[in-house]
Structures are given as C-alpha cells and as structure tokens.
Design a protein that fits this description.
- Chains A, B: GO terms for molecular function: DNA-binding transcription factor activity; transcription cis-regulatory region binding.
- Chains A, B: It comes from Halocalculus aciditolerans.
- Chains A, B: Keywords: DNA-binding, Repressor, Transcription, Transcription regulation.
- The structure is a homodimer.
- Chain A is 75% helix and 0% strand.
- In chain A, helix 4 packs parallel to helix 7.
- Chain A is built from ten helices and no strands.
- Chain A has a single domain, classed as Tetracycline Repressor, domain 2 (Orthogonal Bundle), CATH 1.10.357.10.
- At the A-B interface, helix 1, helix 6, helix 7, helix 8 and helix 9 of A face helix 1, helix 6, helix 7, helix 8 and helix 9 of B.
Amino acid sequence: MASDPPRDEIMEATYRALCKHGYAAVTMEDIAAESEKSKAALHYHYESKHDLLVAFLEDLLSSFTAELDAVEGSSATERFRALVGLFLESEEEESDRRFETAVLEMKAQGPYDEAFRERLDEFDAALSERFADVFAAGVESGEFREDLDVDAAADFVVTVLNGAHTRQVAVERPVEQTRAALERYLDESVRRTAEVEQ
Amino acid sequence: MASDPPRDEIMEATYRALCKHGYAAVTMEDIAAESEKSKAALHYHYESKHDLLVAFLEDLLSSFTAELDAVEGSSATERFRALVGLFLESEEEESDRRFETAVLEMKAQGPYDEAFRERLDEFDAALSERFADVFAAGVESGEFREDLDVDAAADFVVTVLNGAHTRQVAVERPVEQTRAALERYLDESVRRTAEVEQ
C-alpha cells in the first residue's frame, strides 16, 4: 500500500520509525525519537508499543479506505484502473519500500494478534467491496460481461494485489508487471468488448 | 507452501519449533527442545539461529522444488492443476497454518536479510520457470492459445499464489477460492478451447 503517512503527529513519527527500524525491532524510544513528544508522553497516550501499533494500523487503513472512496473515473474500467493504481504505485523511495515491509510484517502477525487481525480483516473486506462495487457498476452499465461473478472477480483481484505486494517485499519484484497482468485480466475476463470483438 | 517438513532430524525439529513459536520468537533452545540433539550440538552444526534458519529455508525450498519437479499429468492443463494444488492445499492442521505464518514472516525478512532473500529469489524464479514450462508445453501441444505470453502468464500465477498465501495467513481466507479463480483464468485466458468454443 503506497499510502501517504497518517496525519497525526504521533502517527507520522510511528511511520518514520517503522521505515527506519521495521516492525519487529521498533521501540517506543525509536518512535519518541521521531516525535516532538517524549517517551513518557507517548506512554500517556498509548499503554504499550502494541497499543500504539494497533492505533497506527487503524489510522493507516482508514486513511487508505478514504483514498479508495475518493477514486474517480468516467467509466468502470477507469475506476478499476485507479483503484489498482493506488496499490501498485512504483516504490521509488527507499522509505516506501521499508514501509511496505513493515506492513507485510504486520500481516504476518495476523495469526498471533487478534487486534491486528481484526483491522486486517476489516480492510480486506473493505477492499473486496470496493472492487465488487466497480465490477457491479460495469455490469450494470453494459461495460462488463453480464455473467461476471462480481464477488469472485473482486476477491481474485484482492488476492493478486496481495501477491504483488508480498513479492515486491520478498524478492524485489517490480509491481508494474502486475499492472499489466491485471490489464490483460480486464480484457480477457471482465470487459464485454473483449467478447464482442472476438 | 504446504510442503512436508524437511527430512533431516535438525530440520524436522526446526519445523516443529517454528510451528510452535513462530519465526520471530523461536530460539536455539526451542529447537533443541524439539530435537534429540542438545543446544551445544546444534551450535556445533550451526553457529547461530540465523545460520540454522537459512539452512532450514534452503532445505525447505529444495524439497519443495523437488515436489514441483515430480508433478505429473497427461496434459498441460492437468500439470498446471497439480502445480497449483501443491500450493493451495487446504490447511486443516493448526500446525500447517502456523508453518505458513513462519514462511510469511521469513518473506517479510527479505529486505533485511540477504541470505534469506537469495533463497527466496531462487525459489521465486524456480516456481515461475515451472509454470512457464507447463504453459510452453501446452502451447506446443495446441492445448493452450498460441499467442499466450508464457512468461507473463507464469509470473501472474506466481503472484496469485503468493497472494493466496498472504491472505490465508493475514485474514484466514481459505485457499479454495483461489483454486476456483485460477481454474477460471485457465479457461478464459490460457486454454485454446475457450476461444474456439465461443
């Protein structure tokens, strides 16, 4: 997720500390060092590093959901591309790449950490829903195949975006290839014109 | 990756310790506790927990590559399904799920850890290659579209498998949906008959 860092000052400090130290190693001291606030002040707001990271994840996902909701486009195809584009931006900055890594570390905490898992669940569902809305709008307007399984297609795209993100972190594979692959998917499996023209 | 645990006794002990404690928390003590060997004996073979985990990852990926190579099928479609099936087995055992999580934690270490990243890279490339071989064989035999971009399709499938794995860990999403989605992908984008029959 190539999201902007959250707005609140503590959240911004957490973002910078996560980019520098990673999820596993980051400490309240590291976050305080990035913030105008002292470690004591951080502890006044958040009892533990875990509480702060849960708040961070929540803030991150809600600002990202707001970005998803702000997506515009004159057609369902354009809105699909815009949604995909929010996820598959090239990460030119080293800090972006570090941040993607911290997000993957937090995903890997899902099974251990109920508070994380709840937020991840909520975001996964919100994302699937946004894609399903775009697919349904495209079917409605006649732009997409009328027999498109809207929920299954949305779920598949969310899986693809998760995979692009994981491979970007694990093996530095550029996300551009996935943008191209999803463009082919749109042509071959989603858009009506692909069938009509054959 | 629903692989069998590695064969060697230390590797099996490492597998069990990772399932119990996870990648971040596991210690040499934990591994020794699962092994017939003492902690001192483990340190005789492996200087550090990191060295042992690198050896474990290597062993895991090479046994998994051997499983990929042993895949059989009377057609390219069947071999494709068998390859996919190796990755998208239902994880009914709690220990399988814990192990998937440890693998995702190791993937998230890619950017921090060159030794891990090299092994992950090698496996990612080996996997893409196996799918590309199956796609090429299907094009050759006339089973798949002759204009199929074999490398791009293989790369896409590897992304999808990574995504299924990540979502399974992060939000407990069952992998069966991805099997069905890849079956549709095969019909709509890969197999020749899909075009001919339209």
